[in-house]
Amino acid sequence: MKLFPFLRPILEITVAICAIVFGLRFITSFFTQASRVYRPTFLRQFYLLFWPLLCMSVGLPFLISFFYLGTLSGYEVVLLTAMAAVILSFSVPALVLHAQYYAHNLHTTLVFDPKQNKLEVYEGRVLIPFAQRDLVRVEYVTCRSKRAFWSNYNFLRLHLRSGQVLVLTSLLTNLEPVAEFLRNSNLEPQQRWACFL
């Protein structure tokens, strides 16, 4: 830790902030009803990004060794390259998916209440009007692997009769109940290695 003395206070502050946020979230969950309005929130993003960021934070100190490339032996360079490839192959797809979903659904709001038969999509503050009869087909794209860091990233693509296509990503909420709600609307389940839009 002599090389990076500033890392310890940053890690301690990060752990303290996370503990406070989760503690407050846990306490307030007793006093709030289940939300029916879904937007990209900090906690949802943290849930999706936890393992990719953890992998990057563990591997980053090793990747810094590339700056000392002239002083490393051939064996060490091969080992560092292999480690960098593993770290990046685990983390980068999830980070790219997250950035793509965030850019697409940043201003999207989903109102979903299956008990009231309610499914509304807002872009900004504008309601996109449609009913279930207006859905030509619905694509539900999920990840083939359930163990990859990016397996929680999936999306629904709603094709409307007007020709408009609405995309709801897992950045908003867990989409499985929404897909179940839309099962009679020509639902087309698909599986991919990674669910890029």
From TrEMBL:
InterPro entries: PH_40. It comes from the Bacteria. Residues 37-180 form the PH domain. The chain crosses the membrane at residues 6-27, 48-71, 77-97. Pfam families: PH_40. The keyword Transmembrane helix applies. Keywords: Membrane, Transmembrane, Transmembrane helix. This is PH domain-containing protein. The lineage of its organism: Bacteria, Pseudomonadati, Bacteroidota, Cytophagia, Cytophagales.
